[in-house]
Design brief:
Blueprint: E1 4-10, H1 16-24, E2 30-32, H2 33-43, H3 45-55, E3 60-61, E4 64-65, H4 67-74, H5 78-101, E5 107-111, E6 126-131, H6 134-145, H7 149-158, H8 162-167, E7 171-174, H9 179-198
Parallel strand pairs: 1-5, 1-6, 2-5, 6-7
Antiparallel strand pairs: 3-4
Helix pairs in contact: 1-9, 2-5
Length: 200
Amino acid sequence: MKSLLIGLTGKMGSGKSLFTSFFQKNGIPVYYSDQRGKIIMNQTKILKKNIIKFFGKKSYENKTINTKFLSKKVFTDPLYLKLLCSIVHPWVLLDFKKWRSSQKTLYLIKESALLFESGTYKDCDYIITITSPTTKMIERIIKRDKLSEEQIMNRLKIQISNKERIKYSNIIVENIQDISFLKEKAKEIHHKIIINGKRR
C-alpha cells in the first residue's frame, strides 16, 4: 500500500521545520522541499544552465547558487518567482518521487513553503498549514537569516496568503504558544493520521 502523503506548509518563519521535527522523532520520513531544491540547483548541470539563461551569470558564484542574488530577484517580483518555480520544481518533483518510492511507512510528510505555488498540493492526501503572527515570524527570520525587516516583509508579502492556504488545508496549526503546545499538536495529528490511514 502506498504511503499517505501529508503536505505541510506555511509562510517562512512560521515554524514548519520545528513542527516536522516532532514527526521525525516518531519515525515519520520528512522531505524538505526547499533544502532539496537548493541541493538540486547546485548539482544539476541542465538546471544550472537554465537558471543562468533566465537570471544571468550572477545566479551562481564559485559554481554555487547565489541565494542572495536570486532571493532579491524573486522576492521583489512575483513573475520572477513564478519563473524560478517553473524551472526548478519539475526537478524537485522528480527527486521527490524517487525519494517517496523508497519509503515504507504508513504516511510521510512533504514540507514546502511553496506547496501551493508549485501546484504539488494537488498530490497530497492531507494538507497541514502552520500559521503564526507576523511579528513572531519576523523575529524568527531575523535570528535565523540575519535579514532586515524590510527584506522579510517583501518575502512574506509575495508568498500566498494564509487565507488562501487555509482554504485548501485539512488541518490548521496556530503557532502562538510554546514548544510543548506544538509537540502535543503533532502527537495528536500523528495519531489521527494513523487511525484514518488504517481505515483505508
